[in-house]
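## retry 2 of 3
previous attempt timed out at serialization; input unchanged, resubmitting
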Amino acid sequence: MATITVGARSVLVLGGARSGKSAYAQRLAEAAAPARLYLATAEPGDAEMADRIARHRATRGESWTTREEPLDLVETLAAEARPGRVVLVDCLTLWLTNLMFSGRDVEAEVGRLCEAIGALAGPAIFVSNEVGLSLVPETRLGRDFRDLQGRANATVARASDAVVFLAAGLPTLLKPAPQLDWRLS
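## retry succeeded, writing output
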């Protein structure tokens, strides 16, 4: 597991689909505090998604409190974050999708989230998909989503104390950037 600096109160965990980002974020939260809130943004729109949600909930067990919030993430996060309890937001990608389909101003909502991150009363971990490393989407909606998600990830990364990227289940610390000791011989 990547080492996060002691002063990191906000962590963004990025990765592709099935990269291990949710499991990593969950382990990070479990190591951070005995009191934990899972702030879920997914909605069970079909049987497959309902099954995914049930599997995620089962992996967390009884030591977690879960609250579902598909749209009003900023207000809920501000109300729920407190000292001694870590909040895990899973995931910003589904939140962004929910915002798009509800007709909300995605960039304004992301801006509000970033403003709120620094003022949270307790630690928070955010999970988000990195969607810019794949094929260019075929549809205009897909390209718009990819662009919005990329900008949202960059904005949330700037607002977060630490950023971890997962690929093949392996974490890489992006922020603060790892310090390398280059020695040429």
